[in-house]
Design a protein that fits this description.
By secondary structure, the protein is of the alpha/beta class. About 35% of the residues lie in helices and about 25% in strands. It is built from 24 helices and 28 strands.
Length: about 775
């Protein structure tokens, strides 16, 4: 056919985002056929491009259905539709991928099992009945099995499993759900389970999943080879089993994530709404932190007194089968000794998890990219990330425009790094705390992977200002032409600017534990003014002496004593401390007061996180802490839903900086604590007071800067009790809050801010 027939029209559509490896092309193919349209679809680097033509009515039907039926695992960041010239095409074709300029964007994140695959798994008549590695173009492993690019089977750990004829036919049929599903497999040709005992000796069984489930129900700890690495499972309703796991894993009190057989069983343990259920069932299947129920079936040792629980649903067929067989919630925690990276190899797990697991449920599909489970909270109707990992990585954050290649190296704790390529910012999976050598090795390995596969030619890299961070030393080896150092809290603010694309005037609030300040003090309760791409410090919580680095973090009473001394003076502080911290030896109190007096091992700080620590200690909720963030988590957990009254605070201006003076606040907290006001009331008053202080300072700065937006970042804003107060207060004041939706507010998000800053510096010359 040549020329144009009357009534034939055409459109071209370009779709960007996570659109490859998620069944997008077969979806377009099927839809075009349904609508009786001709044309073609193809993958190009970072996008899917398609052309359809036919009569106008069919085209508009196609457009409507296209938007409403996009594959569930796809995440569209941009969709451009334009008029095109009909080409006289007949039929619809899926064109071969264009391999030029392949980027990491062509690797999708891992996707939770889809309903169709789960149906096949449960169907005795299906050839994949009970097969724990079932997957299709809509679901299955992706990033975690990729060894090199381009993303096709030969370059994944599925290369070891040649497809059988039946699988090959599915793989090659454009109309099949498994068309180009790279990890496609079946019981005849795919990966298999095996089992080992505590000593590593093979365990003979025809039913490894059933054997594992029975062991779990009998109180054993089972190591399970999952998607991004090993997990340690235990019966979450069995207190003794969970305590054993804590002892062996050397994890005293940090809560465990729990996987549930189904949504009904989740509802029995935590209070969730429809929006939470949508998050749990999403393709990322994250761990969701949700408020626990008073009469939950979970053992007390799962959450160790915290009123929230981390819950998630099975996201692989193997998890689905294990949970079905166990029929009850299972602790499902990273397969490691606390502070080490998650184990991925069979031999590695057999040696590193020896003495922890009673049984090993193994398989022979290698995990290539180490990745923990992601963790989120819900704020409003949307996801608020806490830990960005499996399911989210390597989906990029889309920046407002294109930039030269740069990298952000991240912070020291909860580290991630970030590469900018074009308008895409690729954050690594959660790496962890870079204090131990094995985690540093993991960092270097993951960094080299991203660097190589993005084919990055780094014009710049950006590290934190802290001279002693691992990433600061690593910067020299980052392979970049130029190096920038960016103050920690500014990086938090830039991170929100990067993901929102906001470039006007705003006030920035960065509240967290600690970050190295431009004046050498430890910052952590910071206010900024944002003007376009310029971020300047405009205010902070007033400084106080922070005693002895790490000891103060492990023992919140130490920070509390310093605040007592600042507020009441040394003599009264000693008296109050003895009364409020009866478990602390008086000699330790005296010793620390002397150190504060002589300014030995003391550094000035404006940290909001340490203020939370101190108030948690004053309330008797957490005098000593067993993991980072425990004191503030307990304080938030204790907060009553309502309590009359707040504490006073003072805003003052000095040297062009607004300061929030907390002295009267601390006085009020201490007076309440000594009067034995219940911790719930005290905590609520503290949260409300801090929210008021943030609102007062933000409003004042916004007014003088002519800003209508307020950026909120930093680990303290993981506290949704505080965050929701601040959000509603800002809206009442007709100020628009800008918060994280794509990366964590904690230090897991600063690499994005660093990269964005470096990108703008390079682009700006
Ligand atoms: Zn599927
Ligand atoms: Zn097969
Ligand atoms: Zn921080």
């Amino acid at each position: 056919m040549t020329g144009r027939s009357v009534g034939v029209a055409a459109i071209g559509i370009t779709v960007r985002g996570v659109v490859q490896g998620v069944g997008f092309r077969p979806f377009v193919h099927r839809l075009a056929k349904r609508c009786g349209l001709a044309g073609w679809v193809e993958n190009t680097p970072g996008s899917v491009v398609l052309h359809v033509e036919g009569d106008a009515a069919a085209l508009s039907r196609f457009r409507v259905l296209f938007r409403s039926e996009i594959p569930p695992a796809a995440r569209v960041t941009r969709l451009m539709v334009r008029k095109a010239r009909p080409t006289g095409a007949s039929g619809f074709t899926i064109r071969a991928s264009r391999r030029d300029g392949i980027a990491l964007s062509t690797i999708p994140p891992d996707i939770a099992s889809c309903p169709q695959c789960l149906r096949e798994l449960a169907d005795p008549a299906d050839r994949r009945h009970g097969y724990p590695f079932t997957n299709c173009t809509n679901c299955g492993p992706r990033f975690t099995i990729v060894a090199s690019l381009p993303y096709d089977r030969e370059r994944t750990s599925m290369a070891a499993f040649p497809m059988c004829a039946a699988c090959r036919t599915e793989y090659e049929d454009p109309l099949d759900r498994r068309f180009h599903a790279e990890p496609n497999a079946c019981p005849a040709c795919g990966p298999r389970l095996s089992m080992r005992g505590a000593d590593g000796a093979p365990v003979e069984t025809d039913d490894p999943v059933g054997t594992a489930a029975r062991a779990l129900l009998a109180g054993s700890i089972v190591a399970v080879r999952g998607l991004g690495g090993f997990q340690l499972a235990a019966d979450a309703t069995n207190d003794a089993a969970v305590r054993t796991l804590r002892e062996r894993k050397r994890r005293e009190e940090k809560p465990f994530a729990v996987m549930f057989p189904n949504i009904v069983s989740v509802r029995a343990a935590v209070r969730i709404k429809a929006a939470d259920e949508a998050i749990l069932r999403s393709p990322q299947a994250p761990v969701l932190l949700a408020p626990g129920r008073a009469r939950s079936p979970l053992a007390p040792s799962v959450s160790m007194g915290l009123p929230t629980a981390g819950v998630f649903l099975p996201y692989t067929p193997l998890h689905r089968m294990l949970l079905d067989r166990a029929g009850r919630p299972l602790v499902m925690t990273s397969g490691n000794v606390t502070d080490e990276p998650i184990a991925i190899g069979n031999d590695e797990a057999l040696s590193r998890l020896r003495g922890i697991a009673d049984l090993f449920l193994l398989h022979d599909r290698e995990v290539v990219q180490r990745s923990d489970d992601p963790v989120v909270r819900r704020v409003g109707r949307g996801v608020y990330p806490i830990r960005r990992a499996r399911g989210f990585v390597p989906a990029p954050v889309t920046l407002p425009r294109s930039f030269p290649d740069v990298a952000g190296l991240g912070g020291e704790l909860k580290n991630t790094f970030c590469f900018v390529k074009g308008d895409a910012a690729y954050l690594s999976q959660h790496i962890g705390d870079l204090e131990q050598a094995p985690v540093r090795d993991f960092y270097e390995e993951a960094y080299r992977f991203f660097h190589r596969f993005l084919d990055a030619r780094l014009r710049a890299a950006c590290n934190d200002l802290h001279p002693a961070y691992f990433t600061t030393a690593f910067a020299e080896r980052a392979g970049a032409d130029r190096l920038f150092a960016l103050q920690h809290h500014k990086a938090h603010i830039y991170s929100v600017l990067a993901e929102t694309g906001f470039a006007g005037k705003a006030v920035g609030v960065a509240f967290d534990g600690t970050g190295y300040g431009e004046d050498g003090a430890i910052w952590g309760g910071e206010f900024f003014t944002v003007d376009g791409m310029e971020v300047r410090r405009a205010g902070h919580l007033s400084y106080f002496p922070l005693p002895g680095g790490d000891a103060a973090i492990r023992e919140p009473w130490r920070t509390a004593l310093s605040l007592l001394r600042e507020t009441l003076g040394p003599a009264k502080a000693e008296e109050a401390a003895r009364e409020l911290f009866p478990g602390v030896p008086p000699a330790s109190i005296r010793l620390l007061l002397e150190a504060l007096e002589k300014k030995i091992n003391v550094v000035a700080t404006s940290s909001a996180g340490r203020l939370f620590d101190a108030v948690s200690a004053f309330c008797g909720l957490c005098v000593r802490s067993s993991f980072e963030g425990q004191a503030p988590m307990r304080l938030e957990g204790a907060a009553a839903s309502k309590a009359a009254g707040t504490y006073p605070f003072t805003l003052a201006s000095a040297g062009g900086q607004l300061t929030v003076d907390w002295k009267e606040l601390v006085e009020g907290v201490v007076a309440d604590a000594r009067r034995r006001v219940p911790a719930g009331v005290l905590s609520r008053r503290f949260h409300d007071t801090l929210a008021s202080a943030i609102l007062a300072a933000s409003s004042r700065l916004a007014e003088s800067a002519g800003a209508r937006h307020v950026v909120l970042s930093g680990g303290v804003f993981q506290n949704v009790t505080l965050l929701s107060r601040v959000l509603s207060g800002l809206r009442k004041r007709k100020l628009t809050p800008l918060i994280h939706r794509l990366v964590p507010a904690n230090d897991g998000g600063i690499s994005l801010g660093q990269a964005y800053y470096a990108a703008m510096r390079v682009a700006g010359g």
